[in-house]
Predict the 3D structure of the following.
Amino acid sequence: AQKITQTQPGMFVQEKEAVTLDCTYDTSDPSYGLFWYKQPSSGEMIFLIYQGSYDQQNATEGRYSLNFQKARKSANLVISASQLGDSAMYFCAMSSIQGAQKLVFGQGTRLTINP
Amino acid sequence: DAGVTQSPTHLIKTRGQQVTLRCSPISGHKSVSWYQQVLGQGPQFIFQYYEKEERGRGNFPDRFSARQFPNYSSELNVNALLLGDSALYLCASSSWDGYNEQFFGPGTRLTVL
């Protein structure tokens, strides 16, 4: 079974600073995918970034990058130059070869950006 | 292009009733998944349908059922509602069945009294 652990219930960051949201995972599957989603107060889950387990390079999407350390089973999200609109819940999720569309989510981290 | 749409937005039911939630995927997407998100937790996987076939089922009781129609829209049905079924129900679509991003709808917030 897969498991995602997000150990930071809440984080407070000053605007324009970089922030790292932690995510560790556990799986015995050789092939898997790792995802980060943002959930504003409106409730809709917004896809941010994806990393495949066999990808050699860390994924990047604009201000988002994924710090993938396979041996440590971690997939931290880095947001550069944070903005007020980044305030939201952030969820790390994974899927595996036994269910590529079955996302297993962590408990989430609430990020608050202060002006 | 329209995103994933869900209806209704909000729903209030009483214990023992039945409810049907609806989802329309992004045009061209053939995979639809359903998730339940209880307040303060991450979403939990309920079902996935691809090309009208059930491809995955989460750890939910048989009171939960779903189906996918020829136009790839989907319905989630929950019978004999319990107070614990109160949650945000999210629908997600993707273009194929493998590893790729899923796009979520705004959700249906179900309250069971």
